[in-house]
Every structure is written in structure tokens, then in C-alpha cells.
Specification:
The chain is of the alpha/beta class. It contains ten helices and ten strands. The protein has one domain: NADP-dependent oxidoreductase domain (TIM Barrel), CATH 3.20.20. The chain binds NADP nicotinamide-adenine-dinucleotide phosphate. NADP nicotinamide-adenine-dinucleotide phosphate binds next to helix 8 and helix 9.
């Protein structure tokens, strides 16, 4: 059971003025802050710990929080947001709150139910952004291993995705969410979604870090007028063993990243975030450690990387996808590569319709 967050909203002397943090404008005039705080703790921290970090992060100047129902901590984060808003120090309209629809809520009628639950848990009247977390319907138990396969898992079927998207569009009409967006899609999927959407995705959340730059998808997203939000921006260095494979590389140990960090006198994580912001994506680093989340926010306002450093980082892409999505594989799928349309097409799966 989630604990209520009781400690008051602190006033801190080392806070960063949020108006100094740049933002990306959206077509309706709203502004999404150039960096946000991730809240996926895997099973390392409980909801109360993450909620305290959310409160501390807002106190030091964060205004953008990336949540999701599957992270299992929206109730605790909602209690923290309640303390922040009740203090009067921050207004709801100054915050950018994202949440996401989980894969077991893709059925007709499910999207409104899920969004309403998230709003209740977060204690909010609306979300700034609601994402379809993954384009694959499935269900798997909490804490399951990467070998686990759900009998409910299905591949991408565009007509079915659009039924989910229509429900997302309805949330915008109802005023429950300001913007909707995609996550973990590929160029072929996004092309179909853009062809058929009445309300276009405002943002696309995708894995982005120096060793996984996804240049083609990144370019396509930007050319389509969609804001890219980058997850695992530091390369998720503390992810659990079960989410690692022997071929994974480590961004924060890369000599190019380390050299820039040494020049600037910062942790290599901060260099990854500077690269992200200067490249044009919005990083959403996770941290429950005050010194780290403060350093990450400072990355957005302190000395930038040089053109030479940016050029050097553009050359260290290793195509190293960390979040492979193995648990979402359906019966008949061979491996995680099947989720990502590596041949530039959505494969036709037997029994997928
Ligand atoms: N849409 C999706 O499907 C999806 C998938 C994955 C993640 N996400 C979102 O993206 C967020 C970020 O991804 P992530 O949490 O996997 O990885 P990440 O942000 O790349 O890495 C987080 C880890 O880096 C450490 N760290 C952060 N800043 C640091 C600093 N300045 N110095 C040293 N260490 C630092 C943190 O440790 P400490 O806590 O010890 O500071 C934390 O364990 C998630 O929390 C979630 O909100 C979305």
C-alpha cells in the first residue's frame, strides 16, 4: 500500500529559477519544459521515495514530471503534488505532468477508465500529456522475468491501435488531457498513425541516449512537428540485472562522454543530458538523489557542450537499445527485434487480425 507523503513542501536556497529552463512550444501555445524528472523506479524504490524526489525536484525548479500508471506510484506522487499545490508556491498551470496508458487497457472503454484512475491517483483535474505507453496490447504480472510471455500479447494491428487512439482523442475533447502522444513506435507505425489521426500526437517518447540515438526516427519525429521526449537519457546505469544483456554498452563510461565531463567538471550523466537538450530532445532522467537531480536540472542552464563535443558524441552511437521489450512478445514472435520493424515495415503476423 502506498504511504501518504506528509512532509511539507520545502523552500530551498539552491533552487534554479524555472523560467531559466528553456521549453519546446506546441502548436496550441503551451510550453513543455526542456527537461523532466522520470519516475520509473523499477523495483528499487517504493512510491514514497519517488514521491519525495518529485517534491524535492519541484522545490529545486523542475516543472515537468514523467509518470505512468504501470510505475505503481501515481498515488504517492499525487500526495506529493497535493502538498506542492496546497503550499501555493507552484500553480497547476506551471507544471507539465505526463502519464501513460498501460498495455492491458487497450480495449473499448478502457482508455477513459485508465485516464480517470490516473487523474484520481495524481489528484489532478487534467494531464498535460497522455501517452499510449506501448503500441502492443498485453498483460504480464508485476516483477515477471524477461522470459515471461503473456498469452494476451498481440502484435501491432493498426486498426486496433486507432481504436485506442480514437479514445485518446476523446480525452482531449473532454478536457481531461491537453495533449496526446505516442511512445515506443517506429517510423512505419507513426506514418500510419499520422495518416489516420484526427488529433496528431504532440510528443513521441522514445529511448534516446548517446549509445542509442535513433537518428532516422528522431529526424522523422521532428520533421513531423512532434516533440521527441528521450527516455533512459543517462543510459539507465542502475537498471536491474534482469534488464541487462551481455552486449549492452555504458554511455557514462564512454571516453567521449568522460572527456567532456572532465572538461566541464561534471558527472558523465550531465554530459548525456546536455547532449540531449542541445540535440533537441527532452530528456527525462530518473533520480531520487537530490545532488543528482539538481545537477541534472543545472545541465539545462550551465555551459553547453562545444560544437566539437556535439560532433564527437554524434559518432559514438552504438545502436544499443536497452529497453528491448521482450516481455511484450506474442505467440509466434521470434525475438525482441520483432517489435521494432527493423526492415522498415510492419510485418504481417499470422493471427494478428
Ligand atoms: N516510455 C517508456 O516506455 C519509458 C521506458 C523507460 C523509461 N521511461 C521514463 O524515462 C525515465 C528515465 O529512464 P531510466 O530511469 O530508465 O534511466 P536514466 O534516467 O537514464 O537513468 C537513471 C539512473 O541514472 C542515475 N543518475 C541520474 N542522474 C545522475 C547523475 N547526475 N549522476 C549520477 N547518476 C545519475 C540515477 O541514479 P540515482 O537515483 O542514484 O541518482 C538512476 O538510477 C524513467 O524514470 C521513466 O519515467 C519511459
Amino acid at each position: 500500500m502506498e504511504m501518504k507523503v506528509k512532509s511539507p513542501f520545502p523552500v530551498v536556497c539552491d533552487a534554479i529559477d524555472p523560467s531559466k529552463i528553456s521549453f519546446k512550444p506546441l502548436p496550441d501555445g503551451s510550453k513543455i519544459p526542456a527537461i523532466g524528472l522520470g519516475t520509473f523506479a523499477s523495483d528499487r524504490y517504493d512510491g514514497k521515495t519517488v514521491a519525495e524526489a518529485v517534491k524535492g525536484a519541484i522545490a529545486v525548479g523542475y516543472r515537468h514530471i514523467d509518470c505512468a500508471s504501470i510505475y505503481g506510484n501515481e498515488k504517492a506522487i499525487g500526495a506529493a503534488l497535493g502538498v506542492v499545490l496546497a503550499s501555493g508556491a507552484v500553480k497547476r498551470e506551471d507544471l507539465w505532468i505526463t502519464s501513460k496508458l498501460w498495455n492491458d487497457m487497450h480495449g473499448d472503454g478502457d482508455v477513459l477508465v485508465s485516464c480517470a484512475q490516473t487523474l484520481r491517483d495524481l489528484g489532478l483535474g487534467y494531464l498535460d500529456l497522455y501517452l499510449v505507453h506501448w503500441p502492443f496490447p498485453n498483460h504480464h504480472p508485476k516483477g515477471c522475468t524477461v522470459e515471461s510471455r503473456s498469452p494476451a500479447a498481440r502484435p501491432y494491428v493498426h486498426e486496433k491501435y486507432m481504436r485506442v487512439w480514437r479514445q485518446m482523442e476523446r480525452l482531449v475533447e473532454m478536457g481531461l488531457v491537453k495533449h496526446i502522444g505516442t511512445s515506443n513506435v517506429t517510423i512505419p507505425k507513426l506514418k500510419l498513425i499520422l495518416r489516420d489521426a484526427k488529433v496528431r500526437p504532440a510528443c513521441n517518447e522514445m529511448e534516446l541516449h548517446p549509445h542509442f540515438q535513433q537518428q532516422a526516427l528522431f529526424d522523422f519525429v521532428k520533421e513531423s512537428g512532434i516533440v521527441p521526449i528521450g527516455y533512459c537519457p543517462v543510459g539507465s546505469p542502475k537498471r536491474p540485472q534482469r534488464d541487462r544483456t551481455p552486449d549492452d554498452t555504458c554511455d557514462t563510461e564512454d571516453p567521449v562522454i568522460v572527456a567532456a565531463a572532465t572538461r566541464l567538471g561534471v558527472h558523465p550523466a550531465v554530459v548525456c543530458l546536455k547532449w540531449a537538450i542541445q540535440r533537441g530532445q527532452i530528456p527525462i532522467p530518473f533520480s531520487v538523489t537530490r545532488a543528482n537531480y539538481l545537477a541534472n536540472l543545472k545541465a539545462a542552464i550551465s555551459e553547453p557542450l562545444t560544437d566539437a563535443e556535439m560532433a564527437a558524441i554524434s559518432k559514438i552511437d552504438k545502436g544499443c537499445r536497452l529497453v528491448k521489450g521482450q516481455v511484450f512478445l506474442w505467440k509466434g514472435a521470434k525475438g525482441w527485434e520483432d517489435l521494432w520493424d527493423l526492415d522498415g515495415e510492419i510485418p504481417a503476423w499470422e493471427g494478428s487480425r
